[in-house]
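Quick board copy: two proteins, each given as sequence then tokens.
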Amino acid sequence: MTFPVRGVAAGFALVLGAVALLNQVPGIVDGEGRVFGIFALDVYDDLLHAASALWAAIAAFVSRRASIAFLRLFGTLYLLDGLLGLATGSGYLDLGIVLYGLQPQPIGFRILANLPHLALGGVAALVGWRTAPGPDRAG
């Protein structure tokens, strides 16, 4: 299957860059510091999202092969983080499972809280792992 993987990586750079800035947009963060009333993003989370955006942008700029590597690694890491968060209420990318352990949250909240990592990670992994490495061409 052929995807314009450099374009997909560039798209991830834009999305992740926007996520890194969410805490800075008035009206999106509630009185308890949660984005959209669900995501408690702190400086560490913002830096992780910004670093991921930079990684995606560099990969998209450098080559098709770098973009595939980004999509595979990023996708796998984020998807597994979302699955762990869904199962335990804590992820590993923000060290939540180490710092807070199992969190007794309702399943509906766990789904909403982990949906971004499940969706972004799933799409990135799917595109990355379904795209065969090849010569660096337009895609």
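And the next:
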Amino acid sequence: MFVSSSVKKMDFQYICSRKIYTIGVFEKMKKNLIFVICMMYGVFVQAQDIQGFVNRQLEVYPKSRLLDIYKSCFQDYMGAEHLVTDRQLVKAYLDEELQANSIDDLMPWYDEPCGIEGNYVRISIRTVLEGFITKEMLLDAFIRSANGKRPSVESWKNRWKTIVDIVDKMNLHLPHYPEDRAFIDSILAVGKYAISHSPDYRKAYRPHYRIVERSIYEHEIKPLLEANRMLVRIAEIEVYPQYLTDYLKAARNVGAESVRKESGVICIFPNQMNENENMFRIVEIYRNKAAYEHHLTTEHFQTYKQETLHMVKELKLVDLKPLDINAMPSIFIKLKP
């Protein structure tokens, strides 16, 4: 059958247009699908992050209630609880806390991130009592953090709903959960968000800290804390077999003398490996970097170093990062007779 060229051309254009339309629809569907998948993944990650935070909170602070989970989360999202308009009043309150509390009253940590993302950091007043930072530095960092721009209470209400819905599903059986949930809902309903720690938390952990915005913490406070933070390491040592007996005596002596004579030495604990008697692992814990540097200058360490220099075949120092510094005081207390 004869078909004019003009008809063929129209049919070809129609087919092409349908293909382009089909491809366009397919591309749009693909983009929508990718968007949906990304959204679902984002929700999943958020849920995982919330669950991870809650589990860590209850592991470190088992006396926590929903109030304390809420408080850490709003500190992370909203920052300090209120705008600071009277510096002298804030200073007076900090002075009062510093005078009323000793180092032994406080939790052993110096800083810890707030909530899920750590946008703000809790700085313990321990940092001032131990002389790591000045009172003026902590006060200034807190005031600048408190007076910064913050999200609206309405946006926080939406965020909290996401958090508490996931907490509900975790079935944690937290004490006073219904009352705490109702109280939080009541303050949010009137446009407020700040609350205190629960009585249980305050009694168990005596929280005394200031909230500092993360960038201020990282640039101004963290470097000073790092210089004073506990130093933990393992010395991996291999000695020549012919000096084994002499090295055993020297290692025992320097460990015992260091702990007895140096307040900054928490632990020097030599260990001999079972699989190779010429291999040693010495666990060393110093109160801070300065304590370690002082240890290197002491007579007993210098004697050990000079006496054993020719005995050591290989030495490697491995620095460690404690995962739970809060548990360390109880570990050593248990060793008391």
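Board note added afterward: Residues 33-45 have pLDDT under 50 and may be disordered.
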